[in-house]
Design a protein that fits this description.
The chain is an alpha/beta fold. The chain has two domains: about 220 residues, Rossmann fold (3-Layer(aba) Sandwich), CATH 3.40.50; about 35 residues, no CATH class. The protein has eight helices and seven strands. Helix 6 crosses helix 7. The protein starts with 5 loop residues before the first strand and ends in a 7-residue tail after the last strand. Bound molecules: nicotinamide-adenine-dinucleotide (NAD).
Amino acid sequence: MLKGKTAIVTGSTSGIGQGMALALANAGCNVMLNGLGDAAQIEAERVKMEKDTGSKILFNGADMTKPDQIEAMIKETKAKFGSVDIIVNNAGVQHVAAIDEFPPEKWDQIIAINLTSAFYMTRLTLPLMKAAGWGRVINLASAHALVASPYKSAYVAAKHGLAGMTKSVALEVAQQNITVNAICPGYVKTPLVDKQIGDQAKARGISEEDVVKNVILGAQPTKQFTTVEDIGALAVFLCSDAAKNITGSVLPIDGGWTAA
Ligand code: NAD
């Protein structure tokens, strides 16, 4: 379906980004992977993804806090694949603390990675999409783009900001065959969340099962995690022709969390 298209997926060495990269590659897309991690492990995963999907996969380790590295990654993608048709702004980090105890450097880091990197990615790739007459921008936001939780001020501010930027840019390119949308998952069982389950069980003296059901999924009416495969499938759908009139949308995939 996406044969001949090229996607950059930021933060795709783990979790949701990796799942979306795999789904796009399975749909025929060339993919530029990005993210932090052990070089040998990333290379092994890149080779496996290429073998399993038959699509071309490259990796660029641009740090999303560094605009010059973001620009270099986009230039490398254009040079090696010939175009940049799809960007998935997914890289993200979290820090949990009351605002009067929130370390300023953590605030700056979360805003830089979760919000400002999407600004640079978008401003530098939209000209390529406009020239090609087709494009897809997918911003990986969160249920926290729509509702808040305490102690996550930087994350909630960044994700609400990302939702706002999604709508604004969608309007700017609405007649240029480029769609801009935000995906807003509830809890997804990535390595990050897995670690929280064990820690919370120990801290609260309850079973991991109880942590999942009552603590982590307490706000999620279906009591089920969203999976990386669910999000991958949504990303591929947003790139399809059937989704050409979905733009400026902030799409929850959160088991009913933000409906409650
Ligand atoms: P994860 O920790 O598994 O993956 C995060 C990715 O971002 C990794 O590949 C990491 O290397 C990369 N990254 C971090 N800092 C970076 C930097 N400076 N430069 C480049 N890459 C960097 O987390 P995840 O759960 O897969 O989260 C992915 C996205 O989904 C994030 O934006 C997160 O906010 C969002 N999200 C996650 C959940 C969840 O429950 N897991 C829910 C809603 C939204």
